[in-house]
Amino acid sequence: MIEKENKNLIAALHPYKEELDLDDEQRLDWLQDNVEGGFVNIKHLKLEFEEALSDSNFDWLNFAKSNSLLLSPSSYKNQEIANYVKSVLIDFLYPNEVLTKGQIYQLQTDVVTILKKYSKNDGWMFSYDLYDTLKENEQYRDLEYFNLWKLNFYNSDIERKPIEGKYQEIGYLRYKGSQA
Amino acid sequence: MDNLGETSLKTDVKWLQRVTDWDAAGVRLSKNGSNLKLADVSGNTLGEFKNGNLLPEKYATTGTPRGEVVNGYQVVDNNGTLALKRVPDKSAYNASELTELTQHPNAHVLERHGHDVTDDALIKRAQTPSVAPDGNVANNPPSHSSKFNSPDDLREGLNSTKPGTTAFNNGVQQGNTRVVTYTSTKVLGKGVSRNGSSFVDMQKVKAVYRDVGGGNYQLITMYPEL
Question: Is-above-0.80 flag for pTM?
Fold first, then answer.
């Protein structure tokens, strides 16, 4: 694989370095400032982003390490790092494709339905297993994994158990009513 | 006010005034084990006095104040809905310092890392999902949920990272944003790690500044770190 500079991708992800204690609004504000200030070219960012995602040999682990994106990059699989990058950039780059509130509500409802039926592992379902189950439904055939981050884990029927050292992955989810 | 007459509160004038104000606002107090719980008339928990300090359950960022500020929080009323708003202690800072700490609209230094943030609020922020002292919710906590130990410690962080300082000049510029790191010779703050409950001392400070135009850098955030 030819090493690309990915200058715009690196600059766009700078606010999303896991070591920084910033909230979503502060991160997005930084990214928007980068764009408005000319430090990130949206057109080139999209090209770099799409090329990296479509390149099955793109070394996301090396990318994450070189740019200090994650605290423990070696804990993640290549695809998991790609999913993290998607989770912070896709909605920004393609706002017309963002799930609506209604779609998120439906997703939450359908996830709760799946989790209610899940009895293995004290009810804790691995996020990728949940994703695979969702995609068996025609409605979610094209659902991207990163949209699971839009589920409400606070004051809702779903509780989340992250994997130690791997907080940028969802980890495990459980229906709150299924306490062992 | 369930059973409060059986406690020492019945002769504490300050507390009696506080309770009077809260009662008028619709706050209901009750004992919850060894804690004192605040709820609205519908029974929704607003917060609890835990380990002697108020820890909110229901947060707001705006609203009409009801009663005094207690442990950095104030009951507020939003069209009949009660919640607790974070009101950080600013009394130790002069006008110039407050300007530096609050001028950027996205700055939340005092709200999240101020000296009056309680230990329980830091531990709450370190959980998953993470709820910051001002009520901001995030899926993940920061690597350490931290605060400055005193106004003087925060002041040292501010004065040692601001534009013109060595740390600022050595900072990492990314676009219009500059990330600055400073290490003190003494402990300036403390923090708790993700999903932890024990604290570690911190001598380092990280600050993020934004050039809003013409070299005018404003503080976005500043916090102690390991």
Answer: yes
